[in-house]
Amino acid sequence: MDFSSILTFSNILICLLGVGAGIVIGALPGLTPTMGVALLLPITFSMEPIPSFALLLGIYVGGTYGGSIAAILIRTPGTPQAVATVLDGYPLARSGRASEALSTACIASGFGGLFSNVVLICLAGQIAKVALAFGPAEYFAIGVFGLSMVASFCAKSISKGIFSCCFGLMISTVGVDQIGGMSRFAYTKSMLGGIQTVSALIGLFALTEVINKAVDSVKHVDMESTEVSTKLVPAKEIVHNIPNMIRSALIGTFVGIVPATGGGIAAFLAYNEARRASKNPEKFGTGAYEGLFAAETANNGVTGGALVPLLTLGIPGDTITAVLMGALTIQGLTPGPLLFQNSPEVVTGIYSMLLICNVLMIILGLAGTRLFMHVIKIPNDILLPSVMLLCFIGSFASGNKVFDMQTALVMGIVGFLFTLGGIPAAPALLGIILGATIETNFRRAMVISNGSYSIFVQKPICLVFLLIALASILFVALRDTLPTKKNRERKARPTDC
Known about the structure:
By secondary structure, the protein is mostly helical.
């Protein structure tokens, strides 16, 4: 293969433009990488296959990382993949280490993307066969495993965490039932389509933070009393978190390979495993580097993983790769085994462009760190209205409906009430994300098994995930009931999650 025809200056420049545009799109609340790829897809109609994928993959990679910028600086996840980033990224920024948090996210994102790229190149065909073994029972088990993380996230107040998660599960049932076609809790026609995840996360995190800061301003609370450091993440933290990043990259790549999952689930799974493996799990949620490394490595690990089933089997791994599948067909290419046989130069080009995009993302991310962090220096009387405007624009853009803006507003009020009651918002969003997956696949599995619950224990993959979920809950329960010094200190501190 002649790489000189692939690694041209024009292709690299297109990668750079795509990554830069993706970072901007990801950083703006509501403007997801999926939307960015879809909007720029028509531009690629007249382009050659490799340059077109250089642009689209650049938006994909840059947008996935860009969501962490707003999540860290203003507690506003730019994308659903960046929700777990808020848990430790925003506390780090609040403590005056915004530059360190941003550089951590950039390095972790680059590592996760490059790791998944290597897996894509080396093991695509073999791993894709494993993904084909996943059916409704396995998807249900993954969803249950995801919900079991509530016990780990909210060990200091498990009852409030469960309440928040149940609220999210309830919200996920709004709209038309995907199996029976019945309308549930849809009091208007706009509710038939359900509650959009993007609108919910914008309300629960972004608008809630706007309301909280507005209330603090009225009370004359000094919110920016700490000095802002311009240092990058310490090298010792990177070295210390190498095992954490490898584990998180594996999780992200695996989740990306399994169709119909996504970066949000991968980030939460990796965050949970990082907390479980940590010697200081009580620091998670207060600005722990381990949590930020895990979340950002995993959600970017999905980028390469999601391309595995697309290229090898012709099955898109998520919504973004579904758009990329359209880009392939527009170019006259058919995703699947024949793509490797008939157009090996295109496959090699995709591998190369994805690799270059991740490298450029690291360079742009680190170069722009000190520029991004100036956002927190903007006065609140300018910042808060601007963020609110972006929130409503992003909510509307996610579905082109006024109802989505109303949803974000209602969720913002709910999030503010949660704050007053000390109820965490993350489990609610986790319930919204996983609720439909759990319910739909549970009912599909029951239909396949003619109503027998044995299907969940007869399938090895399903049984393993369910046992891990049970072990996760028992581990947290036993850890918190043992009369250790850490438990006595934890009970003496204010409840948080």
